[in-house]
Design goal:
Layout (H helix, E strand, L loop, with lengths): L7 H10 L3 H20 L7 H7 L1 H14 L25 H28 L9 H19 L7 H22 L4 H10 L1 H17 L6 H13 L10 H4 L1
Helix pairs in contact: 1-5, 2-4, 2-5, 4-5, 5-6, 5-9, 6-7, 6-8, 6-9
């Protein structure tokens, strides 16, 4: 595709999916095949166990899809630099477009995928699966993965720690809210609101990376080293191993 003649939405969709189309097409085809088969099967012909087994490949597919949406298959997520591909900074697109279209595609893909799975595979098999709350949870997870993957950090490995913490909170939030008997409407609003700060983090992070503005947090390491040097050290009873012998 000639990205100079395409619209920003088309250009970014092509950049996002073209390289991995031979993985995305079978994934989408398998999901649609499951939806058609389970929705058209006679009542009682399919069991919950069969539906659970049939959806196992989709778990791997979701991880692959999230890797595509975040460009995580192209970069080292443990690096301190932004994971947004630098080649895309040359596109004649505003920063809001660079993050907006991929985030829209990513959140729609995972949320719509869950909605189809729940409505046309799990429910016909007798599994009482919720549709909207898990769909919003998937969308929020995708948005935050994108935001944290694209934001530069001042130290390596920080991104991995933040991703672990944020995903734990996002997944635990609806569980805790359900346990506390929060009304369903408020749960949906609460989970939808978690996407907004992810967009802001992504916008700021990609903007920094596009300017070449990478933060440096080495002062934290130096400060920690200085504090550790001031702490009293344990005195050994012997100066050497030979003296101890």
């Amino acid at each position: 595709m000639n990205t100079k003649q395409a619209s920003p939405a088309q250009a970014l969709a092509w950049q996002l999916t073209h390289r991995y189309r031979w993985g995305l097409i079978p994934l989408a085809g398998y999901l649609l095949l499951l939806c058609v088969y389970f929705s058209l099967a006679p009542a009682g012909a399919v069991s919950a166990a069969a539906a659970s087994i049939a959806t196992i490949p989709l778990a791997v597919g979701v991880a692959f899809l999230l890797g595509v949406c975040t460009f995580g298959l192209e970069v080292n997520v443990a690096d301190r630099r932004s994971g947004y591909p630098a080649r895309m900074f040359t596109l004649p697109v505003r920063t809001s477009g660079l993050i907006g279209w991929p985030m829209l595609y990513g959140t729609l893909a995972v949320s719509l995928g869950w909605a189809l799975l729940a409505q046309f595979v799990l429910r016909p098999a007798g599994i009482n699966a919720q549709v909207w709350l898990p769909a919003l949870t998937f969308a929020s997870v995708a948005a935050w993965l994108q935001a944290l993957s694209w934001a530069p950090f001042g130290l390596p490995q920080v991104r991995l720690v933040l991703i672990s913490l944020v995903l734990t909170v996002l997944v635990s939030l609806p569980i805790l809210a359900t346990t506390g008997e929060v009304p369903a409407g408020w749960l949906l609003i609460l989970q939808a609101c978690t996407i907004v700060p992810a967009v802001l983090v992504a916008w700021r992070g990609v903007g920094q990376a596009r300017r070449g503005d990478s933060p440096d947090w080495q002062w934290l390491v130096r400060t920690a080293g200085s504090v550790a040097a001031l702490l009293p050290r344990r005195q050994l009873a012997f100066e050497s191993a030979d003296e101890a012998q």
